[in-house]
Write a structure and sequence with these properties.
Elements: H1 20-35, H2 38-66, H3 75-102, H4 106-110, H5 116-146, H6 156-182, H7 189-192, H8 197-200, H9 212-218, H10 222-236, H11 241-272
Helix pairs in contact: 1-5, 2-3, 2-5, 3-5, 3-6, 3-10, 6-10, 6-11, 10-11
Length: 280
Amino acid sequence: MDARVSGSDFPSPRYRSVSPARTVAMVRRYIYLMRGSWPRQLELVYWPTVQMLMWGFLQLYLAEAAGPVAVVAGTFIGAVMLWDILFRGQLGFSISFLEEMWARNIGHLMMTPLRPLEFAAALMAMSMIRVAIGIVPVSFMAIAFFGFNLWGMGLALVAFFLNLFLTSWAIGLFVSGLVLRHGLGAESLAWSLAFLLLPLTCVYYPVDVLPQWLQWISLALAPTYVFEGMRALLLDGVFLGHYMMVALALNAVYFMAALWAFLKFFDSARNVGSILQVGE
């Protein structure tokens, strides 16, 4: 009797029981890595600080040159800080994943009971932790330097943060799946793909500025509603709750599609053996 059993006779690992404990263990692993490396910690605060200072001083200059109406209520600083949540959230997800690729550790992880869904959940948790480490001190610096209080937006921030994180995770899942399947040759997408959204989601200007045909594309992207909502809140004092609901619905579609793609890429990488071949 042949004792050998084909790998195809076992169910895909993603369908087996999911354990929150394994997700917590992965998060602790990444926290230990971060705590043991001050350059990792510095990088989380460095770029958000540079961005905030650059746009803050630009806002002051424009206010002096063109009058306060040109840049009312700190819209530039608010926009750049919300954009940083989106970009750093995606980068926090992708960097944690890429560190496993650079260390050639993906194959080892997948030989443990860790499931792809648990791995993705740990990456999402680390995304939030990395953003929090960067955004909290920078938000207080914005108050000290420019008198802009991000937290003054109140409960609206919850809706803004939720939608921006969901978008960042959708991008992170898709990019990580591509890198998993096609190797480190695709890692540049971790830095470049999010920037495609920068002009389309109207971070620094209203949707009306775009040509009519491009507005339809912009309105199909969830972050557009967040930045439009931020400007409405700062300029008019109005919270556009229906915008947040539209953004949430779009994010639900994009997130589920990205998660499906990530799992498909994972299965494909497992089947062709590229999990163990993580070079270029």
